[in-house]
Every structure is written in structure tokens, then in C-alpha cells.
Amino acid sequence: MTFDIITIFPEIFDSYLKGSIISRALKAGLIKIRLHNLRDWAQGRHKTVDDRPYGGGRGMVMKVEPIFKAVAALKKGKKRRTKVILFTPRGKKINQKMAYQFSKLGHLILICGRYEGVDERVAKYVASDKISIGDYVLMGGELPAMVLIETVARLIPGVLGKSQLLKERITADRGFIEYPQYTRPEVFLPRLRRGYGRQAKKGKKWRTPKVLLSGNHKKIEEWRKKHSKIIAGLR
After folding, report:
1. Helix locations, 139-191, DSSP H
2. Which of 11, 13, 8, 1 is nearest to 144 (CA)?
3. By three-state DSSP, how is residue 23 classified?
């Protein structure tokens, strides 16, 4: 799987790409992440990638021409299935099923907008998918790109190193099973101060559910099903 990221701030990704699992996946050749500065496809001495919006308004809008050229260059000669993703608050919210579908492709081109937005012709004619990570507005598409990369990459065989565990938590319709988990110590007695809320009473021990300590795999499975939530997003 290759992720091509189009951005005007490629340095934002530096520390992220050096992080544990993503870094190991890159070194192992399981995924490729390539950063591209949009200004490389811009014209003029100043490599301008934005301009004032038609109709007036505050802020600047990213131009269609350099984005079109960048995507065309990155798609050239590619035989694998490619999706071109524009991050926008008006896009579909990413969910687990969408991530699974993306993980089966060979190539994703991620367009990271900035300023007050991106020329609408990018959404209409260049991008194949418009994606959002929530009902809020960010300063740019770089953080959504990281979210999408991590959500998709962890579904690629070998990236997590525990493919069987991943299979156990994926449903038949490609949803993801999420349930409460505990580890040592079995009993924890916190030193509480003000501000923890009513659920955290002073002197009360925080215990692990007894069923998880029982060794009875059938009962443990039943407990997990009872307390699980299926994250599917089947839109």
C-alpha cells in the first residue's frame, strides 16, 4: 500500500512517521508513505498555491491547477487501483468499513487542504472521495491524513504483527468489535483528590471484573459480547 500525501507543510509529518508501528511498517516495506510539497507544482517565482475567493470573503482558497497537476503526476503510470481523497468537513465521516475498503487498494493519494478551503473543482473533478473525521473544522488536512493512514495501515497484514487478534475483532460486515479491557494490578486503590467525579469515591478500590480472572473462556467470551460495541458505520 502506497500513501501519497499532497501538502504545503510536509514537515508536520516528520515525528509521526518516526513513531513505533508506522515506522516499523515503513522499514519492513509493508507500506510506503511519500510526502509531496504542493508548491512543486505551482507556477511563478513565489510558487503560489492560493488566491482570493471569487465573490469576496475573508481568507484565501487553494487553487485547483497545482492540485490537478500534482494528482496527475502521482497517478501517471500507476496500474494499481487508486483513490484520490480530499479532506473536508463536508465529506463522509470515515468509519471502520470505509477503512477496510481502502486497505484493499494499492494506492491512496491524500490531498491536505489549508487556509479557508480548496477550490470546489478539486472536490467535483479531481477527488474520488471526500472524507471528514468529524463535525468540526481544523486548520488543515494533515491531521485527518494521519488518522486515515493509521486506520487503514493497521488493517494491512503484518503491520500490527498480530493478525489473528485483528481477525478476532472484525465482524462479518467489516465492523470492529471494541470491549473493555483490564490488566495488572487486579485491584487498584487510588489516592484521590478533588475533581475525579462522583464515580471515584475516596477509599474505594477499583477492581477487575472477576469473570476475566476466572480462566473460563466461555464466560469471558460471553462477558465481552455483553459489554462490547460494534464500530461499523455501515453507511
Report:
1. 142-153, 163-168
2. 13
3. helix
Closest CA to 224 of 187, 177, 184, 183: 177
Residue spans of alpha helices (H) in the chain: 14-17, 20-27, 64-75, 96-103, 120-121, 142-153, 163-168, 217-227
C-alpha cell at 51: 488566491
Helices (H), 81-141: 96-103, 120-121
Q: What is the pLDDT along the chain (235 residues), one digit of tens a residue?
A: 999 999 999 999 999 999 889 999 999 999 999 999 999 999 989 999 999 999 988 899 999 999 999 999 999 987 778 999 999 999 999 998 899 999 999 999 999 999 999 999 999 999 999 999 999 999 999 999 999 999 999 999 999 976 655 555 565 555 678 899 999 999 998 887 766 666 667 778 999 999 999 999 999 999 999 999 877 544 4
Q: Single out the residue of 132, 135, 214, 228 nearest to residue 180, CA to CA.
A: 228
For residues 22 and 209, give the distance between their C-alpha atoms in angstroms, rounded to a whole number: 33
Cell of 32: 510506503
- 90 touches 131 (CB < 8 A): no
Q: Quick one: DSSP state of residue 182? A: -
Nearest to 4, CA basis, from 123, 84, 66, 64: 84
Tell me the per-residue pLDDT of 142-159, one tens digit each, with 9 for 90 and over: 999 999 999 999 999 999
